[in-house]
Amino acid sequence: MSASLPRVNQGIRVPQIRLIGAKGEQVGIVDAAEGLRRAREEGLDLVEVAPLAKPPVCRILDYGKFLYALSKKEKEARRKHKIIEVKEVKLTSKIGEHDYQTKLRNARRFLEKGDRVKLTLFFRGREITHLEIGLKMIERFTQDLADWAAVERNTGLEGKAIQVYFAPKAGGKKSAPARPAMIPGKNEKGQTNSSHAEIKDEQSSKKTV
Length: 209
Prior knowledge:
The protein is α/β, with parallel strands linked by helices. It contains 5 helices and 8 strands; from the N terminus they run E-E-H-E-E-H-E-H-E-H-E-E-H.
C-alpha cells in the first residue's frame, strides 16, 4: 500500500472543497464541513481525491472499499513491472543423463516462475571437432522445453560455446508435483488397503490355531 494515503473526513482541513457525490454527480464547491455532513448522512466517508486542485476535489465514498481497490491496483502494477531475470543453465556435449535431467528440471522451474533461460553449451578440448554432437544436444534440450518455452535467440558458435535464449510461453505447461511415497498397506489417500488387511488377519488367525 502506498505510504501517502489520501486525507479523509476530519483530516481534510481546508475551508472549501469541490464535491463529487456518491453516485459520481458533480455537487460543486461547498464548505468542507458540508461535504462531511453529506457523507455522514449516507453512511459513507469524505475522501480527498485531488489534493492539488483549487479547491481540492473530494468525493463521497466507502473508504474501506477505496483502500481495497487502491491496494489491488498497486499489486497489479507491481506484477506487471516484475523484474524478469535470465537464469543460466550450462551443459557440455558429453553430459550424463542424470545431470541432463537435473538441468532440464531447473530450466523448467525457472520458466514456470516467469524467468528467461540462457542455455550455454561448452565444448571442452577436442569436443569442438564433433560439433554435431553438441548441436544434437541443443536440439534435444529445445524439444524437451517446447511446452514451456520458445527460442528467442541462438548465438551460434562463439569461441567454444553456443548460447540459446528461451522465453516462457504464455500459458505454458507446468511440471507435475512429485507423488508422495507409498506406504505398504496404504493407498494413495493414506487409507488402509483392505486386501492387505485381510492377508494380515488371515496370517494372524493361522498363528493362533
